[in-house]
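The methods section describes the discrete structure representation at length, but only in general terms. Each protein is reduced to its one-letter sequence and a matching series of backbone shape codes. I believe one specimen quoted in the main text would settle the matter. An entry of this sort, consisting of the sequence and the corresponding backbone structure tokens, reads as follows.
***
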Amino acid sequence: MPNDEQLMVEELYKKYGSLILKYLKKNNGFSQENAEDILQETFIKVFLNIEKISKAKKQQAYIFAIARNTALARLEYIRALVTNNEKIEDIEKSIETAKKMDKQLCLQYCFQQVFNQYIHGNNEYIYPLVVTLDKCKYSINKIATIIYRTCNETKEILKSGKKEIEKYQDLNEYQQEHGLKSLCWLIIFLRTEGWRSKEIAKILNKTDDATRQTVTHCRHLMQPHMEICKNDC
């Protein structure tokens, strides 16, 4: 039977493993094989340092720092083997990204927790986001990453979301039924993607002024949650 330390490492892997793997592939450009190797090496180091980690106030910070250092070591090794100047430039960009990896992972993990607390099992708050992203031709994989769900879970949410939103004339009417919170994740996401108020207004079927007011209200609503993440990371 596994001992307490092994069980703790397994729990930490379940909690942070997929997040680290996704980051390595998306932000550092590692192949699936390399990313899995780095993840495995990271959690071997976690196991070797589990006594220190178990006493740490912020366990995720310790783990994300190990992941960062492991990724940097792999990138430095790859750079030493490469002679093509263009590839060296790409690797150096990945190295600069990897240096910020622990902070970025911390923020992503915190936002994931905020997201789950915000919706609190109420999928009506994410239906507008999921359905809109689907209309904008986002893949299921990408939508799943955005809402911190598996692909199968995302497909079910999208299916249910389409049925629910079809009951209403538009998202403006949907908001009147489900409240302002039902549009905030959609609005915040679109703003972070660079959408202007006029473009968001068309999605919501609101006037420009009404849209600006809604954006402002959502920012105020989400600000306390975002501040928690900034302070923690």
